[in-house]
Amino acid sequence: MDQTINRGLDGVYIDTSAISFIDGGKGQLVYRGYDITELADKASYEEVVYLLWNGHLPNAEQLAEFRAEIAPHYAVPGAVYDLYRNLPHGHSPMHAIRTAASMLGAYDDDPDGVDLPNVRRIGLKLLAEFQTITAAYERIRRGLQPVAPRPDLSLAGNFLYTLTGEVPSEAATRVMDVALVLHAEHGSNASTFVARATASTLTDVYSAITAAIGALKGPLHGGANTAVMQALEEIGDVAGVEPYVLGVLAKPGGRVMGFGHRVYKVLDPRAQVLKEVSRKLALESGDSKWFDMSLEMERVMDREMAKKGKEVKPNVDFFSASVYRMLGFPSDMYTPIFAVARISGWMAHLFEQYADNRLMRPRLAYSGTMGLEFVPVERR
Ligand code: SDX
C-alpha cells in the first residue's frame, strides 16, 4: 500500500480548477487568465468577482446587472446585531464574524440546497452581507449604531461607508478596491481548501463558509495581517525592528509574521502591489512610520535569510497591515477585512466543488501500537 506522506499537503494536487493560477517560481498570480497586477491596477472588485464567478469579465450592461443583483442583499437579520451586542468584545472579532456567518444560514429560507442556482443566490447574499456583518461588528463594539448600507456606492465604497458612517474619498475607495481585488482569490489556500473539503460532504454553503472563516483566522494564514501590525506596534520604531526580528529568528521555529509562503519562492506579487500602495499612502499622509518600519523589517529578513541561503519574502499580509493602518482600521479588523474580500474566492470554489463533487477523504498512515490485549478496568 502506497503511504507517501506529504505533510501539510505540500505539493499535493486535489483536483483541477479553472479559477486561478499561481506560478510560485515567477511570482505570478492569474485570475481566470488575467494577471493580478493588471487587475489590481485597472479593475474594480465587482468586475473581479464577476470574473471569478463567471469566467469572463463583464461588459458594462452585465456589470450594471451584477451590481443590481447584489444591492438588495446588504440587510442582515436584526438577530445578528443582538448577538453582537451580547457578545464579550475582548477577543478577536473573527469569533463574532464566524458566528454571525453561521447565523445567517439559520435565517436563510433555503440554506441547504446545493444546486447551483441556490448556491449562486447564497453567494450574492454573502458577498453583500459579509460587508454588513463586519462593519456592524466594528461599530457596535465601539458603542455606535450600525449604518444603513449605500448600495449606490461600489462594494469598496459601501464597505468604508458602513464602517465609518462617512462617504469615503475616491482615493480611499480606490485603495480599498485594490485590497479587495488582491485578497479575493488564491487557489487552494488553507481556508479555501477547508471550504471545498466541507462542501464535499454536500453540506450547505453556510457550513463551508463558517469553516473557512475559522481557518482564515489562524496566524499562519489570514490572521497574519493582524499579527504583523501587533508586532509593529510592539516594536514601536525603526530602531526596534532589527532586535525584534533577530529575537524571533533566534527562537526554535521562530516565524516573523507576514513573511514566507508555501507556494511563492520569490516575492508574492500581491505584496509588491501593496508595498507601492503603502509607500504612496505614507508619502501622501506625511506619516511614514509604519511603512519605514515595514521596509526595515524586509531589509533585515532579506539579510538574515540570505545568511541561511533562503529567500523568505513578504506575503500579502505584510504590507496590507501598514495599508490598513493608514486607512484607519484597528489591527484586529484586518483579518475580518480579508474575509470580506475572500468570500468571492471561497464562493467561486464552492461553485466548482458542488458542480462536480467528490467527497474529500484522505488517509493518515497509522503510527500507533497494534495487538494489545484488552484488560478490564478493575485490573488496570
Ligand atoms: C496567507 O497559501 C495561501 O495562499 C495563503 C494566502 C492567501 O492568499 O490565502 O497567500 C494568505 O495566508 C499568507 C501567509 C500568512 N502567514 C504568515 O505570514 C505567517 C508567517 N509565515 C510562515 O509561518 C510560513 O512562511 C507559512 C505558514 C506562510 C508557510 O509555511 P510552510 O510552507 O510550512 O514553510 P515553513 O514554515 O516550513 O518554512 C520553510 C522555511 C523554514 O525553514 P525551517 O526552519 O523549517 O528549516 O522557510 C523559513 C524557515 O527557515 N521561513 C521563515 C518564515 N517563513 C518561512 N522564517 C522566518 N519567518 C518566517 N515567516
SSE order and pairing:
Layout: E1 20-23, E2 28-31, E3 34-35, H1 36-42, H2 45-54, H3 60-70, H4 78-86, H5 93-106, H6 116-141, H7 155-164, H8 170-183, H9 190-199, H10 205-216, H11 224-235, H12 241-250, H13 269-285, H14 289-307, H15 316-327, H16 334-355
Antiparallel strand pairs: 1-2, 2-3
Helix pairs in contact: 1-8, 4-6, 5-6, 5-10, 6-7, 6-16, 7-8, 8-15, 8-16, 9-10, 9-16, 10-16, 11-15, 12-14, 13-15
Bound molecules: s-citryldethia Coenzyme A (SDX).
Residues 8, 186, 189, 220-222, 224, 255-262, 310, 312, 315-317 line the site of s-citryldethia Coenzyme A (SDX).
Task: Provide a brief overview of the structure.
The protein is mainly α and 380 residues long. It has 16 helices and 3 strands.
Key traits:
380 residues, Citrate Synthase, domain 1, 3% strand, 2 domains, binds s-citryldethia Coenzyme A, Cytochrome p450-Terp, domain 2, mainly alpha, three-stranded antiparallel sheet
